[in-house]
Automatic annotation (TrEMBL):
GO terms for cellular component: cytoplasm. InterPro entries: SecB, SecB-like_sf. Homotetramer, a dimer of dimers. One homotetramer interacts with 1 SecA dimer. This is Protein-export protein SecB. Belongs to the SecB family. It comes from the Bacteria. Keywords: Chaperone, Cytoplasm, Protein transport, Translocation, Transport. The keyword Protein transport applies.
């Protein structure tokens, strides 16, 4: 029984493999166009968050995934600040079928990067002398599923318009 278990584990190790190689900030940007006047106004922030991911194949089984968080905060009609971080990671991924690879790159990797991006963004905002920006957790699996559904609908609409 032990030999069979060890054989199965070795076979599993030869199959799928996932390893985080490096996490880094690829780009960082902060702008407070109305400072210092904005600090003298009543603070009633309206936060708009834009979130994007992109993937790039590197050499062999290495992939770069970049998670971009862009935040625009207004108080009233005035832009208080615009902050953006591109948090990236290099991942070794092999032995996955196309569907599992797509999910890993589109949801699993961004989920790993998000806490780092959120911390970098929060640090950037506080260095600009604004209150901490504590972003809520993001469900990347749900976003990935929504994107797949959107692409499927777009594909169906395109095929119907061709007939």
């Amino acid at each position: 029984m032990t030999e069979q278990t060890n054989g199965a584990a070795a076979q599993g190790e030869a199959g799928a493999q996932f390893s985080l190689q490096r996490i880094y900030v690829r780009d960082l940007s902060f702008e407070a166009p109305k400072s210092p006047e904005i600090f003298r106004q009543e603070w009633q922030p309206n936060v708009a968050l834009d979130l994007n991911t992109k993937q790039k194949t590197l050499d062999g089984d290495f992939y770069e995934v970049v998670l971009t968080l862009s935040v625009t905060v207004k108080t009233g009609e005035e832009v208080a600040f615009i902050a953006e971080v591109q948090q990236a990671g290099i991942f070794l991924i092999k032995g996955l079928d196309a569907q599992a690879m797509s999910h890993t790159l589109g949801a699993f990797c961004p989920n790993i990067l998000f806490p780092y991006a959120r911390e970098a963004l929060d640090s950037l905002v506080t260095r600009g002398s604004f209150p901490a920006l504590m972003l809520s957790p993001v469900n990347f699996d749900a976003l990935y599923a929504q994107e797949l559904a959107r692409l499927q609908q777009a594909g169906e609409a395109a095929s119907q318009s061709q007939h």
